Every structure is written in structure tokens, then in C-alpha cells.
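FORM 12-B: Structure-to-Sequence Request
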């Protein structure tokens, strides 16, 4: 009896994890605009960060958290990711007391980092 409950619970958890891993990416949208980056849910923008407020964009793994010896504070991070595992991208903002970091999971992290860094450099050129 207990074994059946544990087995059913385990199967349910595995199913939910896989469902989130493979379906959430259809609902989360990342958009690189002229002056800002926007993360949204379907057509609704939820987070907008202007390029001149971005300090750094880099590839990110679980070991980058300061609880594992990294330099990213787990508690000052806003997670807007559509995958449970896989490489992530962390956007570090210049300003932000509560949410200095934004963790996202684009389909192609390297290409995303290159594109957003080009737009950040372009924004810096327009300011000067």
C-alpha cells in the first residue's frame, strides 16, 4: 500500500518535471528590442531591462551561485526560465537592490549572449 503511494507520487513528479521542461518554452518569450530586453508570457511583457542598465551577460550554471562558491546571490536573483536543466544565461543589472540578476533559458544561449552584447555595445555608442 505505501509502496503504491510512493510509486504513484514519483511517477506524478517525474511527469510534471518533464511537462514543465518541454512545454514551458512555448509560453515564455524573450525579445531583444531596439533599446531593451523584454521577457514575457505569451504576448504579455513581464520584465523589461534597458541595455544601458545591463552590466554583464554570461552563461550560467548551478555552481555559479554563492552557496556553491560562485559569485551570484541566490536570494537576489529573479528566475524567469522555461527549462529546469540545461545551460542558462544570467543578466546582471547595474542597478537593483532586490533583483540584481535575471536568470533566463533561451534556446541558444551562446547566440543570445552574442546578440544582446552587440545591442549593449550599440546602446553604449549611442550614449557617448
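FORM 12-B RESPONSE
SEQUENCE OUT:
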Amino acid at each position: 500500500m505505501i509502496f503504491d503511494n510512493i510509486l504513484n507520487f514519483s511517477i506524478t513528479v517525474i511527469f510534471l518535471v518533464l511537462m514543465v521542461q518541454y512545454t514551458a518554452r512555448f509560453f515564455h518569450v524573450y525579445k531583444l528590442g531596439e533599446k531593451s530586453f523584454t521577457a514575457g508570457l505569451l504576448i504579455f511583457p513581464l520584465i523589461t531591462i534597458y541595455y544601458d542598465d545591463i552590466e554583464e551577460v554570461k552563461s550560467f550554471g548551478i555552481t555559479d551561485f554563492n552557496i556553491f562558491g560562485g559569485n551570484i546571490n541566490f536570494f537576489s536573483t529573479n528566475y524567469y526560465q522555461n527549462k529546469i536543466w540545461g545551460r542558462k544565461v544570467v543578466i546582471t543589472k547595474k542597478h537593483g537592490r532586490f533583483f540584481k540578476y535575471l536568470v533566463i533559458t533561451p534556446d541558444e544561449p551562446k547566440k543570445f549572449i552574442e546578440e544582446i552584447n552587440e545591442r549593449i555595445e550599440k546602446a553604449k555608442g549611442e550614449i557617448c
